User: What shape does this take?
Amino acid sequence: MTQIAPFQIQFPREALDDLRDRLDRARWPSAIPDIGWTRGVPPDYLRHLVEYWRDEYDWSAWQARLNTFPQFTTEIDGQPIHFLHVRSPEPDAVPLIITHGWPGSVVEFLDVLGPLTDPRAHGGTAGDAFHVVAPSLPGFGFSTPVEEPGWGHRRIARAWAELMRRLGYRRYGAHGGDTGSIVSPELARVVPERVIGVHICGGLAYPTGEPEDFVGLSPAERQRIEAAGRLRWDGTGYADIQSTRPQTIGYGLHDSPVGQLAWIVEKFQAWTDPAQVLPEQAVDLDQLLTNVTLYWLTGTGASSAHLYYEVRNEAKVTVEPGDVPTGVAVFPTDPSIRHITERDHNVVYWSEFDRGGHFAAMEAPDLLVGDIRAFFRRVRPN
Assistant: This one.
């Protein structure tokens, strides 16, 4: 089936009433006082977020905002796929497929869709315009249900290639952060003749290489490596669980909105701009809660976690850099080192920022949009 159907987000009042009721009846565990974030989200902080979520946050306003963007669903390789498709008013706009990661969603992109598709209305020029396609990863948001295993990075990349074909785009760019920083380059390997360039950001993986690769690093590179080492030591428990027992953690995420909130907000505290202490100092709190609410209302805490299991169990293949040009934006939480990154990517553009973090589209949309524009100016067809 290749049909593409229009889609609008609409949840019944009963679902929102149930959420509020569950927040009211939350059971709170005891906690050791005065230990901050060292063992997870502090209970006093989480109580504050829950009260705000229950009493002040307005899902209906954010649902209406999401519905201002054209959305669609289709089925690819037996999997329902939801996506935003925002066409530019500029006739020569370049198609661009953008991919989120975990614990994100298409909600991440709300502040970049306008500047990317209509640059003249946002301080840019017509030559920087894109037609943007923003799919929800399988198992995330409205790209559900997932009814068979095997939806790892390569299969997602093949699905994205088919999606762009169905939309009539013969040549296009790709951007992604987190999972998208892996899927987007993979898309270029699947259909290199279609992808004009790949722009990535938001990597968290510790760089691997020989000992000599880590000699002579700049002070900034050394700091990024040290931060990545700390993350690898005490910040990857979530990945170990999701990559081995996603179904088990999924019961708690599916049944408790407080549990779902804590599971996500911890990553926004750990991965956002290190200069900011709390998540809401790095990102808009209501946008963060919109992301969490989407996970809750779609019941995708468990299905999104399965992506980690799929990736862990994917057959390992030798990765060749390929010829598709790649641009890399390095934000403060990203441990990327250029000469190591160049082993797997044809890097032709590299930028480093001292503001923002892992969720760049939410934290520093101005910097991200500017960098995407700058990279694609180099590779746009004449």
Remarks:
- The chain has a mean pLDDT of 94.
- The first helix runs from residue 13 to 24.
- The chain has one domain: 5-25+38-379.
- The domain at 5-25+38-379 is CATH 3.40.50.1820 (Rossmann fold).
